[in-house]
Each structure stands twice: as C-alpha cells, then as structure tokens.
Amino acid sequence: MMSSVSDNSNTSGTGAKASPVKRVVIAGGGTAGWMAATALSKLLGKSLSITLVESKDIGIVGVGEATIPPIRTFHKLLGIDEKAFMRATNATFKLGIEFESWREQNHSYIHSFGVTGRECWAGEFHHFWLRAKDLGFGGDFGDYCTELKAAKEGKFAYGERMPMNFAYHFDAVAYGRFLKGLAVEAGVTHIEGDIQRVSKCSQTGCITSIKLSDDKEIAGDLFIDCTGFKGLLIEKALHTGYENWSHWLPCDSALAVQTASTGAPIPYTKSVAHTAGWRWKIPLQNRVGNGLVYCSNYMSDDEAKDTLLSAIEGDTLNEPRTIRFTPGKRRLGWNKNCVALGLASGFIEPLESTSIHLIMTGIVRLMRLFPFDGITQSTVDEYNNKYDSEMAAILDFIVMHYKVTNREDSPFWEHCKNMEVPPSLTHKINLFKQTGRVFLDDGDIFRVDSWTQVMMGQGLVPEQYHRVADEMSETELERFLTGLKQQVDNQVSALPSQEQFLRQYLG
C-alpha cells in the first residue's frame, strides 16, 4: 500500500529539457504488468533497463479470461509459441460469444469472429441477405459464417487449408506466470514489495522514484502503472481524475467463481443476461470460469450469489469472490511520465472480452511512440487522443447491447432500454436502422461484421438495404447464397470437435 507522496527535483518533465528515457519502472504484475514487461524487454530491451515491482497486496481480478483475435498478432510479435502458451495456461480456442436472453428472454445469437458471406465494393453482405429475406429465402444470417456455425457445433481446427479467425480462453493468473518467465529471461528485473511512497519532482510534477516497504528506492524515467483499480501512480500520486460512465453502464459489481468441467469445452464464451446484468461462462481445458455482473441498485449481493450458484454447472473450486468497480476511464491514459495500463487506466465490463485487448493496444501504442530522447507533450497528446477514441468506440459497442433490446421485464432492463446513450451511439443505431450502413470510427476495434451481427442479433432490423443488391437477379442472388451456404456447410462438416483438435494439437 502507498502511504505518502514526496517531492524532489531530480528529473526533467515534458518541457524542452526532457531527459532521455532509459529506465522503465512497471508498478504491478498481473496480466497488464507482465504483458508490458514482456513486450518492452523483447522488442526494446537493448535500449532500456526495465524493472517490475510486484506487490502481493494487489490481487489479480481474472479467474479465466476471454480474448479477441488481435492477441494472436501480439503473440506473434513477441515470438510466443502457441502450444507452449496454451499448455501453460490451460487455454482453449474461442470463435465468438453467445448472447442468451439479451434481445428477449430465451433468445440467443452468436457474435462470431468470422466474416459473414462475401461483400462487394458498395455494400456489405448483409444487404444482399436482407434483399433475399424480402424475397422469402436466405435462411439465417449465421448460415454464411464458418466460425459461427463451427462454434454452434462445438467444432474447431485451423491450418493453411482451414483459415479461422479465433482467439483464446485461458487462466489469467497462469498467463501472468507464463509471461513473467519470458520477461525475466529477456532481462527484466523483478522485485517483490509494497509501494509505500511515490516521489515527484517539485518543478515538473513527474514521478522520480517509488519507495518500497523495505526502504528500497527504485528510480525511473518512465513509469507504467499496472496497480489495478487502486491506480497508485496515475491517480494516488498524480491525481489524474476519472470519467465515471455509470450513467451508461449501470452495472457496478461482479461475482467470480471457478467450477469443475462437466463436459468437453465449447469453442465460445457464453454471456447470459439476467434480471439485473449478465453471467459469463469461460471454458478452459481443466475447469470453467464463471461470473455474474450486476447492478447493486437492482440486485443485492445475496441475490446475486444465489443467482450465480443456481445457474452454474459442476462443483465449485473456490468461494465466490466479489469485485466492485466503477465503469469509466482515467482522464488521461498518459500523464506526465506515467502511463496507465489495465484496470489502472479504466474499466469497461468484459462483455466483449476487451480488457486484455486494451492492455495490448496500450502497450503497442506506447512502443510506437516510445520517448527514447525524452517525453514531449505532442507524444503524450497523441497517445491520449488514440486512447480516448478507442475507449469511446468500445463504450458505444458495449452500451449498444443494453440499449438495443426488447426486454422490459425488470426495472433494470426498463432503465437500460430507455436510458440516454452517447450521441455517437445514437447516430450509429439510427444509421443502421434507417440505411443498413455501418461506418467505423478511428478507434473502433470491432469490424463492420461485429456491429452487424450484434445489432441484428439484438433485434435491430434495417428498414432498407443498399440497392447494389438489386443488381443481381433473383435467380442469381439465390444461386449466390446457396453456393456460399454450401461452402460453409462443407467446411464445418470436415472439422473435428474442439476437444479432438486440442488433444491432437497439444499432445
């Protein structure tokens, strides 16, 4: 725990006399800290001295993490062996997320990572499908996506002849340990201890060092705050401020519990809406991660616990753990000479598995902008501009799940359906409803396919389609769709179950 902040004047700030950045200090381990340490040491380690301070006082939130496909690019960048990673973290493959009871009770749809159909220059595939529906054929939208159909059938494989867009489920604690080994091997200095004091320059306000409970002092030029919700550096020391998004995301609590597996792992995450939030299910090789996200204004802790324990399958492996949070973001992701990553930078509920992705994009952005010759204001501003746009785009996507719904069967859902949302989201919803079009923002990490699958899955049906779809005759359109569906069916029928593929792939 940090007890105090002191000032000294042994550093340069973001002014003209900025000092070169050679010493990076990462405060906090966990997923965020070890991802940052691994990336910096492997890619920039020849130019930097990197120290990670890990406190046992700062726990790891995750009990099983779900990711989105860009993590594979991140792993390739770091030269991480997929099989070694999967064995170390009990990982499984993830083709998407099933949303149950979000649109209405007992209705379900899958937001997959795959491309649906085939698009042309003027109109995405869903325009052609919408025209087919008007004509009385076309089937389900998901019939034209290999990843979605494979998920439904519990199948998985990939290779040169079977390209798949996928991510992973894995044990977050084990992932941190795995990355720790890579980072230490690459030269990162690992120190255990509790941060007691943060020293700052009296002239610039930049952080100069952190002092641990054993009086050990660690000086640095750039500090990365991975201390979780506490934000010991970015908030407690630098008083950056926090944007509270509770008016758009009313859930403020979660319960997490691990259970024994009761069957073969499915290749997708499950998200099941309940009366005041939603429940997750993340299947690993050796167990299942479960949790319940809820709004304390509409559901008590005891009710939440009963709801979770009555819904899970398999024996519990630990006591349900309560997590409190305030959805939102730091006003600045980079303040002075401190960059916040992970929960220290903000929190958007993990409905679309964006938590680890945000850590990754923050690290990549920092490395692309790394201030070797000294921190400049333009660098800080660029980082924060990209951080703001990314968080705003994710906020829109997550809020859309709550706003676009037919559910009004509880006070919570009535509130969500009728609440005001960011103007940017209002525009996206209206544009899709009125024209069937989706245009992505600069910071949008989700593709048009994702927006389309979720908006239509939630019950938003466009009032028209792009007339480029009329360029095909009815016969041509039917032949086109039949061919695509057959292609998907053939691909999926040839796939083994995920369990079979895991056994063969990992040995």
Description:
The protein is of the alpha/beta class and 507 residues long. It has 15 helices and 23 strands. It has a seven-stranded mixed sheet with strand order 7-6-16-17-18-15-19. Helix 1 (30-44) packs parallel to helix 6 and helix 1 packs parallel to helix 9. The protein is globular and about 75 Å long. It starts with a strand and ends with a helix.
Strand order within the widest sheet? 7-6-16-17-18-15-19
CATH class of the domain at 4-88 and 170-246 and 327-386: Alpha Beta
What overall form do the CA principal axes indicate?
Answer: globular
**Strand portion, in percent?**
15-25%
The Rg value, from CA coordinates, equals 24 Å
Q: pLDDT under 50 segments (min length 5)?
A: 8-16
Q: Quick one: how many beta strands?
A: 23
Look at the structure and give the mean pLDDT: 93
Straight-line N-to-C gap: 44 Å
